[in-house]
Amino acid sequence: QVQLKESGGGLVQAGNSLRLSCAASGGTFNNHAMGWFRQVPGKEREFVASISWSGDMAYYANSVKGRFTISRDNTKNTVYLQMNSLKPEDTAVYYCAASSYRGSDYWFIARNYDYWGQGTQVTVPS
Fold it and tell me: What is the distance, to the nearest Å, from the Cα of residue 126 to the centroid of all Cα atoms in its chain?
């Protein structure tokens, strides 16, 4: 059983940056691929980024490619999402998640994740 807890959300002006962290406990962190998803009210949870268990492969949604960077530190059981050049459309609750699936194709889909954090709000006013 892996417990995940996000932090680092908040209100930030458009064009600025924010870094989200997700601390894992209670399981084997480096056996799981990690992902970040986001959700706004009335919409489905949307894939943002994922990273392999070793950190050597990362994938991004087209909407954030070039602006967001996912990384992980397996010595600290933590995954990060560095968000630069933020836009109002990035406003959402951001969730981190852990997946035991071994194929990267699985990591784009929310139902393929076994564990989820409680989410952290990111607000970018227009």
Answer: 23
- CA atoms in the 13 A half-sphere facing the CB of 18: 22
Among 70, 77, 75, 71, CA closest to 27: 77
58 contacts 51 by C-beta, under 8 angstroms: yes
Which CA distances in Å does 11 have to 46, 95, 126? 20, 16, 11
Distance CA 75, CA 27 (A): 13
Structure tokens of 112?
Answer: 């393929």
Helix boundaries (H) for 34-93: none
> In the numeric block, which tokens belong to residue 126?
């227009």
Work out the number of other CB atoms within 10 angstroms of the CB of residue 41: 6
Mean pLDDT of successive 10-residue segments in the chain (126 residues)?
A: 95 98 90 96 96 95 98 96 98 97 89 96 97
Q: Which of 70, 92, 71, 73 is nearest to 11 (CA)?
A: 92
